[in-house]
Design goal:
This is Condensation domain-containing protein. InterPro entries: Condensation_dom (IPR001242). Pfam families: Condensation. With 151 residues, this protein is an alpha+beta fold. It has one domain: Chloramphenicol acetyltransferase-like domain (Chloramphenicol Acetyltransferase), CATH 3.30.559. It is 29% helix and 17% strand. It contains four helices and five strands, in the order E-E-E-H-E-E-H-H-H. The strands form two sheets. It has a three-stranded mixed beta sheet, covered by helices on one side. A two-stranded antiparallel ribbon has the order 1-2. The mean pLDDT is 92.
């Protein structure tokens, strides 16, 4: 999938661009767990996205963390995605594809569509059409919609 080989670049450019690389190896980081503590909380703590960062200019915008539970035969996989490349629906799709691969049914995977098709479709709609749509949808709002009384 193109999005899994993408990065964002903006330095020295008039506007940010998404670059799709031919190859973008997935970083796989092996975690070490303490045998004296439960494994899952350790994996969760070591892969907490509040403490980890992904470089937007380095494809892929994701990383895999693996850990073996020293108390059992359980292995853990934690996937860290940047929100620019994945949402909940994308994650469900990726997990479904992983399950097909693990069950030996990779031939059932849908053929991915090139990202350039999406870009071409997006660019085919004039910016004025987008603006007109949102003006029609939001034109009757005459005051800020700020939550929690922040204004």
């Amino acid at each position: 999938h193109d999005i899994l080989r993408s990065a964002a670049h903006w330095q020295g450019l008039a506007q940010p661009v998404q670059v799709v690389y031919r190859h973008a190896p997935l970083p796989i980081i092996e975690l070490t767990l303490d045998a004296a503590s439960d494994a899952l909380p350790q994996v969760q703590a070591q892969t907490d996205p509040r403490h980890l960062r992904l470089d937007l200019q380095q494809a892929p915008l994701m990383a895999a963390y693996v850990a073996a539970d020293p108390q059992s035969a359980t292995c853990y996989l934690a996937l860290l995605f940047h929100h620019l490349m994945s949402d909940h629906m994308t994650l469900e799709y990726i997990v479904a594809e992983i399950q097909l691969l693990l069950s030996g049914q990779s031939e059932r995977q849908a053929k991915p569509l090139p990202y350039r098709n999406f870009i071409a479709q997006t660019l085919a709609i004039p910016a004025a059409a987008h603006e007109a749509y949102f003006r029609e949808q939001l034109g009757d709002i005459d005051e800020p919609t700020v939550p929690f009384g922040l204004l």
